[in-house]
Design a protein that fits this description.
This protein is an alpha/beta fold and 373 residues long. Helices cover 43% and strands 10% of the residues. Strands 3-2-1-4-5-6-7-8 form an eight-stranded mixed beta sheet, with helices on both faces. The radius of gyration is 23 Å and the shape is globular.
Length: 373
């Protein structure tokens, strides 16, 4: 599908806002493109010259330095900067830098997957300087450029209202897919729970299809079942649509590693459920399964094997050759989402990327845990 076949971008309704975007990865870069095509005046900045050049090739505006970005945003007190970088230390560093550049009345938007407690603390610190903090829990992935993003917004009502023009363009429709959840931190909190639910849904689909695939005597067709469930079934969803598309195209999953990264939000959801005393067994077990996938070998499993042999003299398996895995980088801004489909994943890529592999794998981003670690 080429660009001309993509869905029409929402019209801005005649209201244009000037805004900066820091972080031009697959989410931030695509958001800049959607805003630009939707009539908004947005300037993108990233430490990577290649990332800036990429959006400029798509007729978006880029900046090479933080000073250049801030200088292009107009008068102090009316400026807005959207931060779309990995959560944690990087986000903190960018917001600290902005706090020194911006003035009372300006707005800092954190659209990444920050911990809601960090967001609440940062909002207090910025508020002391007269700077508004708005958190936008953003969902949409690589499809957001064409389909729009779901945005869970937290922050002062006045600041959120000032951002309405850009939120209406980024959303699937001006009045759908976005809304103010409450004060600062609430947007990231709702997005955190959203991702916890996502873990549970993905795990349930994966387990169900694996169970059916092993029922060999029935000769079940996974693609047929996925397509059937998309219509009328109570378990139909966008996740199922994507799964059905992959199976219909005869995607070969055998080439893929079973390593699944976990975002920090899955862990935070579990921690919050414990602190509140609210049971979340499905989300908890789904996250634990991701931990298991990140182990090269399970020390607990090795111990069980040793114990069975020790008390019963049972046969056991030993490791002969280590697992060798490649790495396929994330989809770049502007690429059609089909580039991420399973059938389009290269069969082999043993390169280790440009140093951002952990970042790209997920917010937690840890390497496989070895049995002796």
């Amino acid at each position: 599908m080429n660009q001309s076949e993509w869905k029409r971008f929402p019209d801005d309704g005649g209201t244009t806002m000037k805004m900066g975007m820091i972080g031009l990865g697959k989410m931030g870069g695509n958001m800049v493109l959607r805003l630009t095509r939707g009539g908004q005046d947005v300037i993108g900045y990233d430490r990577s010259e290649d990332s800036v050049a990429l959006i400029e090739k798509e007729d978006a505006r880029g900046a090479r330095t933080m000073d250049e970005l801030i200088g292009a945003l107009g008068e102090p007190g009316s400026r807005a900067v959207w931060v779309m970088v990995p959560s944690g230390k990087i986000t903190q560093a960018v917001i600290d830098d902005l706090a020194e550049h911006l003035a009372p009345g300006d707005i800092v938007i954190d659209g990444g997957n920050s911990n809601f407690k960090d967001t609440m603390r940062r909002a207090e610190e910025l508020n002391a300087k007269g700077i508004h903090m708005v958190d936008v829990g953003t969902s949409g992935g690589v499809w957001g450029l064409s389909e729009g993003y779901a945005m869970m917004v937290g922050g002062h009502e006045e600041a959120v209202e000032r951002l309405r023009p850009v939120l209406e363009v980024l959303a699937p429709a001006p009045t759908q897919g976005w809304g103010r959840m409450g004060p600062s931190g609430s947007g990231h909190y709702v997005k955190m729970v959203h991702n916890g639910i996502e873990y549970g849904m993905m795990q349930s689909y994966a387990e169900g299809f694996e169970l059916m695939r092993h029922k060999e005597e029935f000769g079940l067709d996974m693609a047929q079942i996925a397509e059937l469930w998309r219509y009328g079934s109570v378990i139909r969803s966008w996740l199922l649509d994507l799964t059905a598309e992959a199976l219909k195209n005869s995607a070969d999953f055998d080439q893929l590693s079973d390593y699944v990264a976990d975002s920090g939000e899955g862990r935070w959801t579990i921690i919050d459920s414990i602190e509140q005393g609210v049971p979340t067994p499905v989300m908890t077990l789904a996250t634990q399964m991701r931990f298991r996938s990140q182990q090269e070998t399970s020390y607990a499993g090795q111990m069980l094997s040793a114990m069975r042999r020790a008390f019963g003299g049972h046969a056991v398996k030993t490791l002969e050759t280590p697992k060798k895995e490649g790495f396929v980088p994330e989809v770049e801004p502007g690429q059609h989402p089909s580039a991420a489909a399973p059938e389009n994943i290269p069969r082999s890529n043993t390169g280790q990327g440009d140093g951002s592999m952990k970042e790209q794998l997920g917010e937690a981003g840890q390497d496989r845990v070895k049995a002796d670690q």
